[in-house]
Amino acid sequence: MERSRAWEVMDTDCLSNIFRRLDVDDRVLAIPFVCKSWYHASIDPLCWLLLDLRPLDFMPRSPFALRFTKEYSLQPFAFTFSGFLKLVVHRSQGLASHLMFPLVFGPSLDDLVFSSKKCSSLKTLVLPRLEQEAENQLPELIKHWKDLEELEMESKPSSFLELVAQISVHCDKFSGLKMFGHIRMEDSWALVNSLPKLKCLNLSKSCMSKEELMVMIEGLREMESLIVNECIGFQVDDEVKRRSLSIQNFEYEGCELRVDDAFDTHEFDCLHVFGLWG
């Protein structure tokens, strides 16, 4: 009876079901080194459906990087974000459904290309601010994620219009978008025309006018959640509230019509580029 309760002899499927609920660093640095049975359970692809890399510090001299280098007997400074990404993606064996990149240490174009080829089953993708080369290729890469349902971006990419068009063509189940940036009228119409079945939209800390907001409220008729907290360029008046009654969850806390008389959209874009807004 006592032996049947021992963790090391538990069924692999049971262990995998437990380990999949742990953070990525525990699955990589703790679990595999306990015993052989735990190691085999830890590399089960079902443990790697959720790849949330946001809490990890990928700087070369961080405690996480140093411990990883030690545990896996790597040469000093051999630890890289790209190498770690390949490790966890390989363990998922193409089954990963959620991939969240860290905000500080973002993916290169090569990392995104690799992920698009090896993580074709993604349902949720979270991206930090990307370099221009990676932004430009994002619409092309989105074609590989046909099961994508939710996309979160730290900022609106320069290729936004093309990206939305590609999502419309290739991602039939797409229903949720989160980003911030300068939302222009063409962006609002692109969402309405290309993603009419969008259910959740979060544009908090963005810059847009009331007119641009109204286009989305009236055009996205299946929208269930609209979050525009701390936006600038409009205030939610009685007309906006009346037109948005069909939206189950409408959040608009802290919205301001403008910052000051000298504020313009060019200034807003510069604030985003240098990370001074939000």
TrEMBL record:
F-box domain span: 10-48
Highest taxon listed in the record's lineage: Eukaryota
Pfam families: F-box
InterPro entries the record matches: F-box-like_dom_sf (IPR036047), F-box_dom (IPR001810), LRR_dom_sf (IPR032675)
SUPFAM superfamilies: F-box domain, RNI-like
PANTHER family: F-BOX AND LEUCINE-RICH REPEAT PROTEIN 6 (PTHR38926:SF5), F-BOX DOMAIN CONTAINING PROTEIN, EXPRESSED (PTHR38926)
Name of protein: F-box domain-containing protein
Organism for this UniProt entry: Dioscorea zingiberensis
